[in-house]
Write a structure and sequence with these properties.
rod-shaped; alpha+beta
Length: about 140
């Protein structure tokens, strides 16, 4: 082979290598974009599913034990809920936004005590954008 042929082969191999590298980089960028889109959609789906879970409580009568479990589920976890829980009983209304009330909800001598066999009417409060702002539990009767 002559020198010219070798240089042409080397040049062609270099161009093909550059093309393959650029195609690989392009595929990487597209995969990264796709991953970002999927992550964003998964977060939206998770938020929607959580909202649907909460909306299932609307208009339902629940026991005091279920009110306590609701509080533990949405306010005592790693990430507290972004809505408030309103508890109406014994002539007073209390709004709770964090997990600080758990001991009072379980203490039978507390004003916030939720008797296990009490019946509460649950209502989910939404704003005009259909964002859940509060879940309201109103004591209907206490069977103690």
């Amino acid at each position: 082979m002559s020198m010219a042929t070798r240089f042409l082969t080397l040049g062609a191999a270099t161009i093909i290598s550059c093309l393959l590298i650029s195609l690989g980089m392009q595929q990487y960028r597209q995969a990264k974009q796709l991953t970002n889109i999927v992550n964003r959609r998964m977060i939206e789906l998770s938020a929607w599913m959580e909202g649907e879970e909460i909306l299932q409580y609307h208009g339902v009568k629940v026991s005091g034990a279920e009110v306590l479990n609701f509080y533990k589920r949405f306010f005592c976890g790693f990430v507290p809920a972004d809505f408030e829980m309103q508890l109406v009983q014994n002539g007073c209304e209390i709004s709770m936004k964090n997990g600080a009330y758990l001991a009072e909800l379980q203490n039978s001598k507390s004003l916030l005590y939720c008797p296990d066999n009490a019946v509460y009417q649950c209502n989910v409060v939404e704003n005009q954008n259909r964002v859940i702002t509060a879940v309201r539990f109103v004591m209907q009767e206490s069977l103690e």
